[in-house]
Amino acid sequence: LYNIPEMNKLLTISLLIFLFLSCKNEKKSELEFYAENQTSFFDLRNGDWTKNSWIRKTENLKIIHESFKKLGYDRIEKLILKNSDEFLIQDIYIKKNFENLMDSLELTYEKPEIQTKYYTEFWNRRKAEKNDSIVYEIIREFNSYKSDKKRLNYENQFANDTLIDLLNIEFDYANLNIEKAKSDFYTLKKYGFHQSAYNLLYERRKYSELELDREKLKKELTKSTEFNQAWLIDNEK
Fold it and tell me: What is the Cα–Cα distance from 205 to 209, expressed in whole angstroms?
């Protein structure tokens, strides 16, 4: 049998567990999930690039490159967080100066005699994946953009308009107003990105400042019984 202090302690612990579980259940019942289309390039947002097979295919690298050129490489340079001797892109940390690295990769592609261990291994991996030619083309054209800051000519037949529209929503805040927010919402809905559209309404800092009829717009979205990773992620937490 428990003595009085032990009984009180047991009751207190039991009560806290009960309240915690009650809060969890209540929170779970309030969550709303929405459908989210999974495009061929979707894992570029939520997946591990080091293990992504889609991005290693020549035709897909071409799609990404031409889409970025059509969008404008200046619009997406903010994806790369650079310091003087290191940079970070999508959780991938590289301890090298970004500009020097790009210049050296272009220089060493056809000159193995001047390659150090790093560049030898880099280009050998690309050759093993059979994408070294397109990687070299991307690096060479990106370096030419860096030197004169002129928009690169793009091949429209390879550009992916869905990807371009998604990136425009994510990075075009300069003229954000209620009408553009509604347009962004319906663009996401058109492509089947309903969880992303929900996040735009409730979970994005820039949009939260606008007086949208969120409840009315939310009713237009298709619900899901399970959580789906969203392209347009929650950035308010």
Answer: 7
pTM exceeds cut of 0.85: no
**Exposed/middle/buried for 180, CB within 10 Å: 0-12, 13-18, 19+?**
middle
Q: Is 90 left (phi over 0), alpha (psi -120 to 50) or beta?
A: left
Tens-place pLDDT, residues 76-110 = 777 777 777 887 876 778 888 888 999 999 999 98
How many angstroms separate the Cα of 90 from the Cα of each of 22, 68, 156? 37, 16, 26
165 exposed, middle or buried (CB, 10 Å; 0-12, 13-18, 19+)? middle
Q: How many CB atoms lie within 10 A of CB 141?
A: 18
The alpha carbon of 141 is separated from its chain's Cα centroid by a whole number of angstroms, namely 23
Tens-digit pLDDT profile for residues 163-180: 999 999 988 877 899 999
| Residue 192 near residue 35, CB atoms below 8 Å | yes
Q: What are phi and psi of 115, to 5 degrees?
A: -75, 135
- Between the alpha carbon of residue 142 and those of residues 57, 103, 114, 136, 137, the distances in Å are 19, 10, 22, 10, 8
